[in-house]
From TrEMBL:
<dbReference type="InterPro" id="IPR026968">
    <property type="entry name" value="PcaD/CatD"/>
</dbReference>
<dbReference type="InterPro" id="IPR000073">
    <property type="entry name" value="AB_hydrolase_1"/>
</dbReference>
<dbReference type="Pfam" id="PF12697">
    <property type="entry name" value="Abhydrolase_6"/>
</dbReference>
<feature type="domain" description="AB hydrolase-1">
    <location>
        <begin position="25"/>
        <end position="253"/>
    </location>
</feature>
<dbReference type="InterPro" id="IPR050266">
    <property type="entry name" value="AB_hydrolase_sf"/>
</dbReference>
<protein>
    <submittedName>
        <fullName>3-oxoadipate enol-lactonase</fullName>
    </submittedName>
</protein>
<dbReference type="InterPro" id="IPR029058">
    <property type="entry name" value="AB_hydrolase_fold"/>
</dbReference>
Length: 265
């Protein structure tokens, strides 16, 4: 675990190895989570790839910065982190808002990317009024007031059992999230729309959906894939919005297949 100051914000990051022979895979977490969501996926990928994980501003151990944010604020941080590590020609795997960060990164700096995995995300997520209502609800009652509702979209009913300590752990991750970091990133998602830009993506792309995702349902992820020429589309069965937690083996297998067959061939 390391820290670096980028754009006047301290960013927490971790690199699994720095073997120059390994392609670099960047994993970008979702709204209300941090880099720990990749914990079960890392061992399944780290032998063949140098993997960068980090906490977005306003999440985990990274600084808050000045909220509300834009997607460009998050992209600026990621560009700064890649420059700091001297990483280029990376494959980026972005989950939910992480996928929107990936889309905007390609739009601004396509030379940095050799491939993209857009997981449980879309070119446009939710209506403006929905995000405004969520921000208002969190500001009035705290994140905990929406925990059950959010968790019902993140995880399947089988995972959301009182006897499952991992479920309680992810509830803690969400509710201990800094309020302004959460609402600030809600605003970033609210204001983002990449419908016009994603058809211009010209690197290999894999779009991943969770079978029971209540935040970005499979049909929404499919609509993103349909906009990107030559993209692939896969569904992780038995998982919802965060398949790297619920189905890490299946999730990693889909990523490995894409990387070996479409990026490293």
């Amino acid at each position: 675990m390391q820290f670096v100051r980028i754009n006047d914000v301290t960013i927490r990051y971790s690199v699994t190895s720095e073997n120059p022979a390994n392609p670099v895979l960047v994993l970008v977490n979702s709204l209300g989570t941090d880099g720990r969501i990749w914990h079960h996926v890392l061992p399944k990928l780290s032998d063949d790839f140098t993997i960068l994980t980090y906490d977005k501003r306003g999440h985990g151990l990274s600084d808050l910065g000045d909220a509300p944010y834009s997607i460009d604020d998050h992209v600026d941080d990621l560009i700064g982190l890649l420059d700091h590590l001297e990483f280029s020609r990376v494959v980026i795997c972005g989950l939910s808002v992480g996928g929107m960060i990936a889309q905007r990164l390609y739009e601004r700096r396509p030379e940095l990317l050799r491939g993209m995995i857009l997981s449980n995300t879309a070119h446009k997520i939710g209506a403006r009024e929905m995000w405004n209502q969520r921000i208002a609800a969190v500001e009035a009652g705290g994140i905990g007031s929406l925990c059950d509702e959010i968790m019902s979209r993140w995880f399947t009913s089988e995972f959301r059992q009182p006897a499952n300590p991992a479920y309680q752990g992810y509830c803690n991750m969400l509710t201990r999230q800094p309020l302004s970091g959460y609402t600030g990133t809600c605003a970033a998602v609210r204001d983002a729309d990449f419908t016009a830009s994603v058809p211009k993506i010209a690197v290999p792309v894999l779009c991943i959906a969770g079978e029971y995702d209540g935040s970005t349902p499979p049909e929404l992820v499919r609509s993103l894939a349909d906009l990107i020429p030559g993209s692939q589309y896969k569904i992780i069965e038995g998982a919802a919005h965060i398949p790297c937690v619920e189905a890490p083996a299946a999730y990693a297998a889909v990523i490995r297949s894409f990387l070996f067959n479409d990026i490293m061939d």
